[in-house]
Design a protein that fits this description.
3 helices; eight-stranded antiparallel beta sheet; globular; 12% helix; mainly beta; seven-stranded mixed beta sheet; single chain
């Protein structure tokens, strides 16, 4: 009997130790981020971060940004773009007439443990290098009264938020090609594209893009996918274009899904490639353009 009691107590102790070790081992998520320090007024600003968590993928990652320490920051959900990377754009209404915008990033894991970065400040300058708009030099505190930007509120107040999923021009819910009406014409902006090779570092590139929405309801671009001319029908205000990758070392395809909304086009980038040595990789990113 004594031996049995000792065995029960030993098993219970081992169980408690295992539980305690598991709880101690599961740490809050870790945010890896290179702060954006400066940007050009009128150009889209994308914030990117990589989130690592020992329990798997992060449950949610949010961007908080504000132009004043006297007001609550906007909360913008960051979109997963593969390999633990997340991306979001600074709301356009915050950068139009501001000399500075401050932001921080917060991440949650499946156990609701959270981590946040310090506040960072972006200084906006005109193309000539001059500081744009008024700046609020007050030190930001880590208050939490965020205003969640949903699709409805973004449309209502004119905020340009990066498209999370993008619509596909392959669907049939629009009943055919959508004529552009007053939205047709040239749209110019930029694209930010990320490449993550298995076991390698995440690389990025940002480049200018021009899209042409024709009267026929077809959209074309010579530089959305660098080095290729692409076109696609716009159906229910959405389109999908696919570009091939073949530069000697990489082969695969990249898909660009976009949505036309009045005077703006926003979209997402995704794709997969393989190197000549058999290493797999993934493309991700966003693009945005404004009617000229």
């Amino acid at each position: 009997m004594v031996t049995m009691i000792r065995q029960v107590l030993a098993n219970a102790l081992l169980f408690l130790c295992a539980v305690s070790f598991g709880l101690a081992a599961d740490q809050p998520p870790r945010i890896i981020h290179e702060p954006v320090k400066a940007a050009v007024t009128g150009q889209p600003v994308y914030i990117r971060a990589t989130v690592r968590d020992d329990g798997g993928a992060a449950k949610a990652v949010n961007l908080y940004c504000s132009v004043s320490s006297d007001s609550a920051p906007f909360k913008v959900p960051m979109r997963a773009s593969g390999a633990g990377a997340f991306i979001a754009s600074i709301p356009r209404n915050l950068i139009q007439n501001s000399g500075q915008v401050s932001y921080y990033i917060e991440a949650f894991d499946s156990l609701e443990q959270s981590t946040e970065t310090p506040w960072y400040t972006i200084t906006f300058r005109t193309a000539s290098g001059k500081t744009a708009g008024p700046a609020d030099g007050k030190k930001k505190s880590s208050w939490k009264k965020p205003l969640l930007i949903t699709a409805g509120t973004a449309a209502a107040i004119g905020i340009g938020v990066a498209v999370a999923g993008g619509g596909s021009g392959d669907g049939d819910d629009g009943g055919g090609t959508t004529p552009p009406g007053d939205t047709g014409g040239l749209f110019s902006g930029s694209a930010t594209r990320f490449l993550q090779l298995s076991g390698g570092a995440l690389t990025s590139e940002t480049y200018s893009v021009v899209l042409n929405l024709l009267d026929s309801g077809t959209i074309t671009s010579d530089d959305l996918h660098p080095g290729a001319n692409m076109s696609a029908p716009v159906t229910a205000n959405a389109f999908t274009m696919v570009g091939t990758v073949s530069d000697g070392n990489l082969s695969g395809s990249v898909t660009y899904r976009g949505t036309v909304a009045d005077t703006t086009i926003n979209g997402s980038i995704s794709g997969s490639v393989v190197t000549s040595t058999g290493t797999n990789g993934n493309y991700s990113g966003v693009f945005s353009a404004t009617k000229q």
